[in-house]
Design brief:
Layout: H1 2-22, H2 28-55, E1 72-78, E2 85-90, E3 95-103, E4 106-109
Antiparallel strand pairs: 1-2, 2-3, 3-4
Length: about 110
């Protein structure tokens, strides 16, 4: 996941800063503060990863717990009206309407 990678990069950066700082012969109290801060950052990263995994499970279900609609049966596109839209007809009989608009030279729906 991109969010977890960013958090891990942040922790790696904090670790690198700690190593660079330790090469400059800082007073031990300052070094201890930096080590404590790094530990706090690592704990915070673990907490955020747990929250992220609890909120966004990787099983394909949407956040409300509804399973994916499955295969698309057909698509229709309506234009030139007040409510231009792309309608998706799913194999299970449900439909999804995506409003569309023109942005520069590109049609955007969603």
């Amino acid at each position: 996941m991109a969010r977890i990678s960013s958090l891990q990069a942040l922790a790696a950066g904090a670790g690198a800063a700690l190593l660079l700082a330790s090469c400059q012969r800082q007073p031990s109290a300052e070094l201890q503060q930096m080590q404590q801060r790094q530990e706090q950052v690592e704990v915070k990263i673990q907490q955020l990863e747990q929250k992220l995994n609890a909120v966004a499970p990787g099983n394909g279900a949407d956040p409300a717990g509804k399973p994916p609609a499955g295969a698309i049966k057909s698509l229709t596109y309506r234009s030139g009206t007040a409510d231009d839209r792309l309608r998706i007809y799913w194999a299970d009989g449900s439909t999804t309407n995506l409003p569309c608009k023109q942005e520069q030279a590109t049609l955007v729906c969603g």
